[in-house]
């Protein structure tokens, strides 16, 4: 059986979410790197458009299918590979996990991803990105104040943690002041050295530029 | 608290909010009676920003659903909660791959299109540029949705049963029309939208049927 293949970019936070989930669930996979930069972005080439019509990463080829959208991929992994679950059993706690995932994946990241920043323009992109990240993190911090234990929801790692850590990295890239978000910072710090998260980190990726890799 | 579970769910909703509309459709399809608390996104700079509502929804958005003694935010989260707690009239297929196809369409709309054309972003973009901005992101997203539908659609978005994908699609088509997006390049989207236009659950959820729809707009 062929290993799943993940189309990924080293610094893409959405790809990173899926890499974390695959690692946590101990699902071996191969990476096909898609450079979002080279030649105007390999994600826009005809061949990749056949894989992902949104021309984004990640995409996952698994079980003879191709699946796009990071939350969709992660839910598919949860439903088909129930070992090392990343979702609680309780329906309300599952909702708490999804709330955090959705606030990040629809409320923050789409507003600061590459294609939008290009459209916003070089002059305004930093302020734009900071604005939407701070707005979203204020909400995430509030949600976490009710849901968090050791991790985002209770004391087990969930899909919410898979979404949070890459978004914190992005926040730092855009020099967002994270001091108003102590719970976010605590959880990020807690997970920093977790093997599954370290292995998924941009600096550990095969397409990470050598000058950046630790 | 013991009486809460017998009370009807309460949906914080704005008549024209596409995200609220998705949830209204799902509640109707699953035959879950609910009450609406209207939140005007316009009055006084937007009631969603007031202190009281911020306690309900820290993203200061609609919809929010109070159900089973809890408050849940984010439309896809709400819809998944309804699916998991009220399995009658399922809006998700059983097959895991088909479920993924439903979620792909939901996510492309809910993270790839709508956040880029919702009110708070358009205010930030500014009056001059907002129409072109909204059209750009809707068209980009609909190109992808049309491609996904070409593989997944039967009578509806995924096969021949109504799913959460249809709940997301119809409100987004309405938004596309509001921004004068040319929909002719998207024949499958148009066909499905037309198919569902007169479905009772979709009609009852339509902005024009909402208690807070301005009288001059209601059909």
UniProtKB/TrEMBL annotation, chain A:
Signal peptide: none annotated. Its EC number is 5.2.1.2. Residues 2-85 form the GST N-terminal domain. Coiled coil: none annotated. Pfam families: GST_C_3, GST_N_3. It catalyses: 4-maleylacetoacetate = 4-fumarylacetoacetate. InterPro entries: Glutathione-S-Trfase_C-like, Glutathione-S-Trfase_C_sf, Glutathione_S-Trfase, Glutathione_S-Trfase_N, GST_C, GST_Zeta, GST_Zeta_C, GST_Zeta_N. Its cofactor is glutathione. Belongs to the GST superfamily. Zeta family. This is maleylacetoacetate isomerase. It comes from Iphiclides podalirius (scarce swallowtail).
TrEMBL record, chain B:
Its cofactor is glutathione. It catalyses: 4-maleylacetoacetate = 4-fumarylacetoacetate. InterPro entries: Glutathione-S-Trfase_C-like (IPR010987), Glutathione-S-Trfase_C_sf (IPR036282), Glutathione_S-Trfase (IPR040079), Glutathione_S-Trfase_N (IPR004045), GST_C (IPR004046), GST_Zeta (IPR005955), GST_Zeta_C (IPR034330), GST_Zeta_N (IPR034333). Pathway: Amino-acid degradation; L-phenylalanine degradation; acetoacetate and fumarate from L-phenylalanine: step 5/6. SUPFAM superfamilies: GST C-terminal domain-like (SSF47616), Thioredoxin-like (SSF52833). It comes from the Eukaryota. Its EC number is 5.2.1.2. It is an enzyme of class 5 (isomerase). Gene3D superfamilies: 1.20.1050.10, Glutaredoxin. Residues 7-90 form the GST N-terminal domain. Residues 95-215 form the GST C-terminal domain. Signal peptide: none annotated. Keywords: Phenylalanine catabolism, Tyrosine catabolism. The keyword Ion transport does not apply. Belongs to the GST superfamily. Zeta family. This is maleylacetoacetate isomerase. It comes from Iphiclides podalirius (scarce swallowtail).
């Amino acid at each position: 059986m062929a290993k799943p293949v993940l189309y990924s970019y080293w610094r893409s936070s959405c790809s990173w979410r899926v890499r974390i989930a695959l690692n946590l669930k101990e699902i071996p996979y191969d990476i096909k790197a898609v450079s979002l930069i080279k030649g105007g972005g390999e994600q826009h080439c005809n061949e990749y458009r056949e894989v992902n019509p949104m021309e984004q990463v990640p995409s996952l080829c698994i079980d003879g299918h191709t699946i796009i959208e990071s939350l969709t991929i992660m839910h598919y992994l949860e439903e088909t590979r129930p070992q090392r679950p990343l979702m609680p059993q309780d329906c309300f706690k599952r909702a708490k996990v999804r709330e955090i995932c959705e606030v990040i994946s629809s409320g923050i990241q789409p507003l600061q991803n590459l294609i939008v920043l290009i459209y916003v323009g070089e002059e305004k992109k930093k302020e734009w990105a900071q604005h939407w990240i701070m707005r979203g993190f204020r909400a995430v911090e509030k949600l976490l104040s009710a849901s968090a234990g050791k991790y985002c929801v209770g004391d087990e790692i969930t899909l919410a943690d898979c979404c949070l850590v890459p978004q914190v990295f992005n926040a730092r890239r855009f020099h967002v002041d994270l001091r108003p978000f102590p719970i976010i910072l605590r959880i990020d710090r807690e997970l920093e050295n977790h093997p599954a998260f370290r292995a998924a980190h941009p600096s550990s990726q095969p397409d990470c530029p050598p000058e950046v890799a630790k």
